[in-house]
Amino acid sequence: RHCTDIICCVIFIVVILGYIALGIVAWVHGDPRKVIYPTDSYGQFCGQKDTLNENKTILFYFNILKCASPVVLINLQCPTTQLCVSKCPDRFATYIDVQASYRYKPDQWNYFRQFCKPGFNNPRKSVAQVLRDEDCPSMIVPSRPFLKRCFPDFSTKNGVLTVANQTTFKDGRGQTRNVTDLREAANGINNVLDARSVGMKIFEDYAISWYWILIGLFIAMIVSLLFLVLLRFTAGVLFWIFIFGVIGIIGYGIWHCYWEYDHLKGIPGSDLTVYDIGFQTDFRVYLQLRQTWLAFMIILCVVEVIIILMLIFLRNRIRVAIALLKEGSRAIGYIMSTLFYPVVTFILIAICISYWAVTAVFLATSGEPVYKVMANQTMCKYANLTCDPETFNTTNVTKLCPGAQCTFAFYGGESLYHKYIFIFQLTNAFVFLWLVNFAIALGQCTLAGAFASYYWASRKPADIPLWPLFSSFGRAIRYHTGSLAFGALILAIVQLIRVILEYLDHKLKGTKNSFTRFLLCCLKCCFWCLEKFLKFINRNAYIMIAIYGKNFCTSAKEAFFLLMRNVVRVAVLDKVTDFLLFLGKILVAGGVGVLAFFFFTQRIPVFAQEAPTLNYYWVPLLTVIIGSYLVAHGFFSVYAMCVDTLFLCFCEDLERNDGSTAKPYFMSASLHRILGKKELSPKKA
């Protein structure tokens, strides 16, 4: 063994160090409070401790009608003054009415002015000037907090949209408006608020049933393990039962098509052709034609013949594939620790995801408050220009644009760091993809090394090295970090291109340029195929690296040509393996899911008293089913890696050895018997 792809290894280490540095810089400049706390028009956080807004945790909008959608509100770009308040308004009121009655109804004024700018207490100021300077909102409406922001308290009464049981309100500017005018400003909020109650019920169900969910996942783990062990004895039986079942079902389909074809004989209109009746939206019309059933019967006959011919000519390949599946089950039985290695991969990927997410949040919240001129007049030339709130009142902007204000817009900056935030986010995403692919590659190479040590042992299991999994992991880290990083880099580049194409496709959804959409669709399809191909090549390259310890390019080339020389075996083995593992996943997830269904619906008399009372029984049920499928996928991914490794070793064994005393085969006795004397006879010089 020697170190491979050293240059890529060095680059990989440097990139990791740079990634750590990027995270540190982001943590220094970023401030997650910008995500946690709403920000008012002065750039101050609502609800932040040790500030004037400590007890004012909710953001209030002076004129919510100016906000086009909830997305605009959440992004803090609604063109109206925003203030931190301790609670949302609970009544309808207008500034005109409150000012007119402040002398004999001071309580109304005291209530209303808590939604005015801090320190404003001058009810004698003219209404026009107050609204121009936005000292106070022109009106307030009953609201409730959502995402720490005040939204109108919508409700539906007899199918009519209302706010506090009213369908109209005064806008404070002399007009009576319908509450439907608020709909656009807070579109969809009512549905989201209703979903909150559903979310709380789901959370309660999880809190009550988490213990039983874990038990269900543990049962799934045991069933998955038993399935893999039993494959040694049942792989062939399961496969042939399925094959003959498919042949029988297709045969029944042929008979049924013939019966329908004969039954329609003599019925008026049944002899028409598909061309005669043309295209029909009701497809049942076609089932009344003899031609339709004749076509179905011919198609099924062709499929039946193809399957039978494939079984006849590929019977030995199928027997080899089944023998390799059984051998894989036997190998896992000797190296049981490999079944739990996916936990290591999961932990590494979880670390990568966590680091990426935290870094992305800190990068997104990097920057200083940026203030812009907000003018009521559409023709103001200073509108949307940056400004300084401390010196704004001394400028000519307020004179040229009456009512203009210098308000907080967003977080950003003009420094070199802030200009390259997008590049840093792109780098963050790229390195994240690289690290995730490296973690997957490390797992594949580690498992391949462990299973290869099993295959190449002359006497099984006596010659299997001690702790084969840990030894393989050490070799992969010590000698082949560069090769694994190289393969992961290639895959990460393709995946990043796919992400960019998806982003462009999302941005161009509304465009009418058909050629651009078609080109993007073609590129997405091509890169999807390229990613699948690279994953296949990388997987087999890592196996060759684990076996021979060569660099990535050499291993990939040798693996590719080895597979091409055995392309029929590859196709048969892949399909047989995919079928059995898919059957296993469905069996595990379905079996545990059925058990969970009867348990959570209290249909098992023995456990009826133990079953928790739930709001939605499907919440833990779906969790158990999906979790069981993922658990089974984790175990079966090890099995698939085992079969792929044994297959490459098997192909290498056939090419390098001839079964003679000088060059004996390393394969098991069962594979010896399947190959027969012809293939095992010594090769002639």
From TrEMBL:
The chain crosses the membrane at residues 7-28, 210-230, 237-255, 293-314, 334-358, 431-456, 477-497, 517-534, 579-600, 616-636. It comes from the Eukaryota. InterPro entries: Choline_transptr-like (IPR007603). Pfam families: Choline_transpo. It catalyses: choline(out) + n H(+)(in) = choline(in) + n H(+)(out). One of its GO terms (cellular component) is plasma membrane. It is found in: Cell membrane. It is a multi-pass membrane protein. Keywords: Antiport, Cell membrane, Glycoprotein, Membrane, Transmembrane, Transmembrane helix, Transport. GO terms for molecular function: antiporter activity. Choline/H+ antiporter. Belongs to the CTL (choline transporter-like) family. This is Choline transporter-like protein. It comes from Fulmarus glacialis (Northern fulmar).
